[in-house]
Amino acid sequence: LSHFAKGTRYRTILGGKIVSYSRSTAITMAPSATSGSGADRQCACVVLAAGFGTRLATSIASDPSQAFLHLLETPKPLLPLGGSSICERWVGIFGQLSSAAPIIITNDAHFPLYHAAFKGRNVQLINDGAVSNDTRLGALADVELALRNAPDADAYVIAAGDTLLAPSVDIGALLDAFLASDDDVATLGYRMSNPRVECKSRGLLVLSPEDGLHVTKFVEKPAEPPKEEVLASAPVYFFRRAAIEELRRFLAAKREEKAPLASYDAPGFFLARAVAAQLRVRCSAIPHRIDIGSLREYVTALQQLSGPERAGGEVVVGRCWPRVGLLGNPSDGYGGACVSCPIEFCDAPEPVEARVFVRAADEGTGITIIPNRERDGLTYQSGWAQMCSKLTSEGFYGGIRLVQAACVKFYQVVSEKDPSLTLTNDVIIGYTSSIPFSVGLAGSSAIVTATVRGLLQFFRLEPAAFGSDAQWAQWVMEAETHHLQIKAGLQDRVAQWFGCPMGMQFGGAEPRLAPLRPGVCGRLLQARMYCVYSTQSEESGVVHASLRQLYDGEARVRTAMDGIAALSDTLMGDSFSLDALCDAMDRNFDLRVAILGGGMAAVNREMVHLARSHGLSGKQAGSGGAIVCVAREPVSAEKEVEMRKAFAERGFVLCSVRPATRG
Question: What is the pLDDT of residues 293-351, one digit of tens each?
């Protein structure tokens, strides 16, 4: 390795003392011990942990919630996740594969952190000597360095320290299959949910059409997905000695030609070389991988792997989707009926939802609610125009008041229901939301709902121990109506708290709430559904106040509202036809126009009329500023591009969405 060949001296910490050396040092933290059935397998295992996490650090520093700044200097493999670090999870897995101490290879900057984290453990630490991202060796060189220090074995297992696999993946069974084969290399692959987007950041495996097992081609991060059927590569590899020798020849050739490190540092480049060298490379299909490249991916992993145990500094995530009123709104506020559902944005680069982050604070520091830099910031660097534009479009109140009100309501509920309950007073709470602001997608109630969910999860409290789902939806609403005096109804909170498409009837003494039947939900998932929104809107409280005056004063308005409520019956049965849904949505909007007359915002009329011109049936999703649409006929990719362009030219955003469900 060039860094060491120059005789550069590096430092590491061993037993609390600084040790100088001219080559990388391997340290065994504890005597080797036999663990589980792995004692019979002749394999050596390596965790790659020498990266500098520059992308993650950038996303943490720029994150408006400011809730992860305490992890800014933490290497990705040491991030707390589900009660342990990612690296600890791999060490545990590898301990079951082999009695040999797992190898962790890291860099000089992070070596002290790993030394502290694994002190007394049965692991071997290797410092590759890199002090910054500019002096990194690259993943392939780290693999070679680690294997040079590994014991002789029949197979060598290498895993990236910033990746986890689904719990259902049995690494031991995959290793046994590899050992029983005559293959030289094995890796894992999974199907991408959005190939056109994901292919740009993934290595792709083309499998043999004959056996569907062996790799015939490897393509590293192409701009467009190949025409062949492909799997995305997960960075877990099995090597035999022949593969290691080929790896050394590959690295030597690249250094000889003085190739840029970026052209050969990733293990995927070696997979391409192995296929070209006619080594037998196999790929086993897995459900998916959990990749921690950015803060968004780390937060997603926290949601997927959260459990009863938490590591130090681990953040609990409460989340909530936006919602759309499919039918019946706004009659829900007038003793009527409606169908409402939470939605997921299908083509958004990041999840569109509210997220609240809760973690333990240092003892004695009390409760801290962190303002969101974007929603609650009081600095406008571009001056008056930016300030006026932001405040007039997003309102003057920010989101921190919603978190505060949710905290108050949460404490009132749990302390009243269980007076003996003791909650820690040392908590840090942050929040963020990517739901478009003030467009009638229930962004405010999403923040309140996410806060309450996050607090329940943080304190390990079961919601059912304090009340039903219907009661929790009511309490979420009261956080806004009672503590903040926001005019609001139950519809949003029911759909968001239950987390599935809901039918609601409000005519009796108590509201009747029920999830839509499975056949209806399945049909809704098959429909092509869109959300279109504009930022030219009003706060929902203003809209509701105007509507209330009309309802109380005019009989025709009350009659029209009854007609709107009756439309919800379209989705209350066992099934429905797409034409019937589209007709009901069109009628819902037309009746609302008849009620409001000139009071209907021009932007809402324009969005619906444009939708209808493209064969979509649409209505307001909520109080205004966004509409939900359903296509009567199949929509081609070309047609969708045409629609997006047409809406964009009018200043609107069209997004493909689908009903969301907690299950």
Answer: 899 999 999 988 888 889 889 999 999 999 999 999 988 888 999 999 999 999 888 89
For residue 312, give the amino acid letter.
G
Three-class DSSP category at 447: helix
- At 155, which amino acid appears? A
How far is residue 83's CA from residue 313's CA, in Å, rounded to a whole number?
10
Please write down the HEC assignment for all residues of 38-80: HHHCCEEEEEEECCCCHHHHHHHHHCCCCCCHHHCCCCHHHCE
CA–CA distance, 123 with 100 (Å, rounded to integer): 9
Q: Which residue has 């991408």 as its token pair?
A: 192
* Maximum distance among all Cα pairs of the chain, rounded to whole angstroms: 91
Rounded distance, CA 111 to CA 14, Å?
A: 10
Q: What is the C-alpha to C-alpha distance for residues 155 and 50, in angstroms, rounded to an integer?
A: 22
- List the beta bridge partners of residue 427: 360, 367
Segment 218-223 long-range contacts (CB within 8 Å, at least 24 positions apart): 218/268, 218/271, 218/272, 218/275, 218/281, 219/272, 220/266, 220/268, 220/269, 220/272, 223/199
Burial 621-658 (b: 16+ CB within 10 A, else e): bbbbbbbbbbbeeebeeeebeebbeebeeeebebbbbb
Amino acid making up residue 655: C
Tell the residue number behind the tokens 């290879």, with chain if given. Answer: 105
Distance from C-alpha of 402 to C-alpha of 375, rounded to nearest angstrom = 11
Count of CA atoms in the C-beta half-sphere (13 A) of 224: 3
Distance CA 54, CA 57 (A): 5
Per residue in 626-663, pLDDT tens? 999 999 999 998 999 999 999 999 999 999 999 998 74
Taking CA atoms, 73 is separated from 60, 317, 433, 442, in Å, by 10, 21, 25, 36
Element (H, E) at 460: none
Residue located via tokens 């293990």: 267
Distance CA 328, CA 504 (A): 9
Q: How deeply is 532 buried, as exposed, middle or buried, from its count of CB atoms within 10 A (0-12, 13-18, 19+)?
A: buried
DSSP-derived 3-state class of residue 32? coil
Task: Count how many Cα atoms sit within 13 Å of the Cα of residue 78 in the half-sphere of its side chain.
Answer: 25
Question: What is the distance between the alpha carbons of residues 348 and 360, in angstroms, rounded to a whole number?
Answer: 31
Angle at 73 between CA 68 and CA 75, to 5 degrees: 100
Instruction: Give backbone dihedrals phi and psi of 19, rounded to 5 degrees, phi first.
Output: -120, 125
Model pLDDT, residue 136? 94
> Which residue is it, tokens 């949505």?
585
pLDDT of residue 26: 56
The CB density around residue 366, as the number of other CB atoms within 10 Å, is: 11
Most confident listed range (40-44, 118-122, 478-482) = 478-482
Q: What are 442's two structure tokens?
A: 């229930």
* Residue 651, phi then psi, degrees to nearest 5: 85, 20
Q: Which residues contact 287 (CB under 8 A, 6 or more apart)?
A: 166, 168, 169, 190
Q: Are 658 and 529 in contact (CB under 8 A)?
A: yes
Contact, 274 vs 281, CB < 8 A?
yes
